[in-house]
Amino acid sequence: DFAYGGGTLTTRPLKFQGNRLVLNIDTDATGIMQVGLLDDSGQAIPGFSLDDCIYINADAVDAEVEWMDKGKDVSPLAGKTVQVVFRGNGTKLYSMQFVDAEQ
Question: Over the chain, what is the mean pLDDT?
């Protein structure tokens, strides 16, 4: 849970397969979530930073994460070590999953 005052969460380093990052999330009416991807040294990956992420406001089991210039496709990062960082306010994040979705 992310309080209304806001908070962040960063995953352990991981490698993934797939071309989309989907969230099981409930932002309620006024909550928001942004997601960023970090490289193996903990630096924001250009185009996939928290500030590049389009605000997510949804109650969905499959909300796709999207970045302003990169869109939803994360396949260029598949197989590389990344960390996922979440920044949210008034949001419940139940799970995240990288999936293969139609382009």
Answer: 96
